[in-house]
Design goal:
- α6 packs across α7 and α10 crosses α12.
- A ten-stranded mixed β-sheet has the order 3-4-5-7-6-8-9-12-13-14, with helices on both faces. Strands 1-2 form a two-stranded antiparallel sheet. A two-stranded antiparallel ribbon has the order 10-11.
- It is about 35% helix and about 15% strand.
- It is of the alpha/beta class.
- It has a single domain, classed as Rossmann fold, CATH 3.40.50.1820.
- The longest helix is centred in the middle third of the chain and has 27 residues.
- The two termini are about 30 Å apart.
Length: about 550
């Protein structure tokens, strides 16, 4: 999971602890906690089956399109330069305000490309990728793509990524300095009394004021995901692709869904893995996500009871609750920092993104129970992209800023108290209050929300693959089911497993379905099921959205 700029658990969520565990990159791309959405209220049932999509997988020309775009803005010729072979980098200027594309200020976006390794005749076009967020660098994610995607995809596509506005190398946000951000992320994650709520509100207001003072309300009003989708369409034209082929994880599914809704006839193929339901408002999403993380923690305890470093005589849950209570009452000193309850929960959340991280989490908890908070604090720092020198990248600042314009949030603190209580009653006593209050920064955000909750249908789009993992803590399974049904051409693939998204969880079945779709535009019937390991997807059993036995 990921903490927000408010320093509690998270509006910005890590998408790939699993990549760090299985593929090696040290950066944590992140997943979206808040559930922004389209303003379109229409929804449609997903198709019961899908065959070859249209258009066909005919190789497209790599020549850039430098003619006018549908907005009247000239599409630029990109100047690619080597930036660590075999990667190429470029920048592109996009209008700050797409409502007036030919006038007004621009934003420079950072791009990266890994040219297809196959022959020119094999090349289909570009595959745009986004790891999640908001706030995670897609450029940095792409630099690890050779360890993530299979050779066949890398042979057929140029892999292209761009850092969205305010993120990574695209005019990144930094609303607090290192020491100030340290203090902000360490504050009370679950305020209950009026004085505690007032302290959190003051910290949130300071953070928001810093963003407004440094970047201005005009810029903050134009970093929403619909603007990012318009940017992606502009870049699609610049790289010479007639249609978009896209692979998005977690928050990246929201970017893909927004793109489909804005440009349904520009879609070739979209894979949305670890999907967000855009119909949910911010606090409703928080409540559901909190249940997901508490359930994943329960799964960890169940596995740990028999044998793990934190088995604690067969009762790891009791030991965990005791440890959390001790840290809440008396934070553990770690050098010149303290492991507070907020940072403790962040570190725990970091270890829940993939079962591959559970042994690390167990060791860190056992070490903390013996009085050393170093390992849990390191995991919390990994989640927030804090460097060892005390500096932060744009992840936390951009994540909160984008979240606040991507969805709607109440302004009264009583609504957050009520939502926190609801999350607890739904089965999230540990993560519920922290996740809900992490969104409180949006209650007083200096600019209004841009995107309103509502289902996305993307009428006229070709089949879109939505992958939902049954034990996903960050983007709960039901959200993927809902998105697949809301999309007029959604095709649901159920991944039976634990962890956030299917990536890195060992499902060759899911990988094969995604690859076949991206290359050949063919899909299994909606509601098909994949487990981990090899094998073909099982056909749907009963109603769509019900995992096969």
């Amino acid at each position: 999971m990921h903490i927000t700029s408010a320093g509690r658990l998270a509006s910005v969520l890590a998408v790939l602890a699993l990549v760090a565990a299985s593929c090696g990159p040290s950066h944590h791309p992140v997943a979206k906690s808040t559930p922004p959405a389209s303003g379109s209220p229409s929804a449609a049932a997903s198709p019961s089956s899908a065959g070859p999509a249209s258009p066909s997988a005919t190789p497209s020309s790599p020549a850039a399109n430098t003619g006018p775009s549908p907005t009247g803005l000239a599409v630029p010729a990109l100047s690619w330069r080597t930036c660590g072979a075999p990667f190429q980098c470029a920048t592109v200027a996009v209008p700050l305000n797409w409502a007036t594309p030919t006038t007004g200020p621009t934003v420079k976006l950072a791009l990266i490309r890994l040219p297809a390794s196959g022959s020119k005749s094999e090349r289909i076009g570009s595959l745009f990728v986004n790891p999640g967020g908001p706030g995670a660098s897609a450029v940095q994610f792409a630099q690890s793509i050779q360890t993530i995607l299979p050779a066949e995809l890398l042979a057929r596509f140029d892999v292209v990524a761009f850092d969205p506005r305010a993120v990574g190398k695209s005019q990144p946000l930094s609303c607090e300095s290192g020491p100030s951000m340290d203090a902000y992320l360490a504050i009370d994650p679950a305020p209950a009394t009026p004085s505690q709520i007032a302290q959190v509100q003051q910290a949130d207001q300071q953070f928001a004021a810093g963003c407004a003072a440094d970047y201005g309300p005009t810029f903050l009003s134009h970093i929403d995901t619909q603007d990012a989708a318009r940017d992606m369409d502009f870049i699609r034209q610049a790289v010479g692709d007639a249609k978009l082929t896209y692979l998005g994880y977690s928050y990246g599914t929201f970017l893909g869904a927004q793109y489909a809704n804005l440009f349904p006839t520009h879609v070739r193929a979209l894979v949305l893995d670890g999907a967000i339901d855009p119909a949910l408002d911010g606090l409703t999403f928080d409540e559901q996500q909190a249940v997901g993380f508490d359930q994943e923690l329960t799964d960890f305890f169940n596995q740990c009871t028999a044998s793990c470093a934190f088995s604690s005589g067969g009762n790891p849950r009791a030991a965990f609750l005791s440890l959390e209570a001790k840290i809440t009452a008396s934070p553990i000193q770690v050098g010149n920092r303290q492991l507070t309850q907020a940072l403790f929960l962040d570190g725990v959340a970091d270890g829940l993104y993939s079962p591959a991280s559970w042994p690390q989490l167990a060791t860190a908890l056992e070490t903390a129970s013996n009085g050393s908070g170093n390992q849990i604090l390191e995991m919390a720092d990994e989640l927030t992209d804090r460097s060892s020198n005390g500096t932060y990248d744009s992840l936390t600042s951009a994540g909160s800023a984008i979240n606040c314009v991507d969805s709607t949030y109440p302004t009264a603190s009583a609504a957050y108290t009520a939502a926190a209580n609801t999350a607890v009653s739904m089965g999230a006593p540990i993560f519920g209050p922290a996740i809900v209050w992490s969104s409180f920064v949006c209650a007083g955000w200096p600019v209004p929300s841009v995107i309103k909750p509502g289902p996305i249908s993307a009428p006229g789009a070709p089949p879109i693959l939505v992958v939902a993992t049954t034990g996903d803590p960050a983007t709960p399974y039901q959200e993927g089911v809902s998105l697949a049904h809301e999309l007029s051409s959604g095709v649901l693939l159920i991944h039976t497993g634990l962890g956030h998204t299917s990536l890195g969880q060992g499902s060759i079945c899911v990988q094969n379905v995604e690859d076949n779709y991206l290359i050949n535009l063919t899909l299994p019937p909606t509601g098909s099921t994949c487990g981990n390991g090899n094998g073909s997807p099982s056909p749907p059993s009963g109603a769509s959205g019900t995992p096969a036995a």
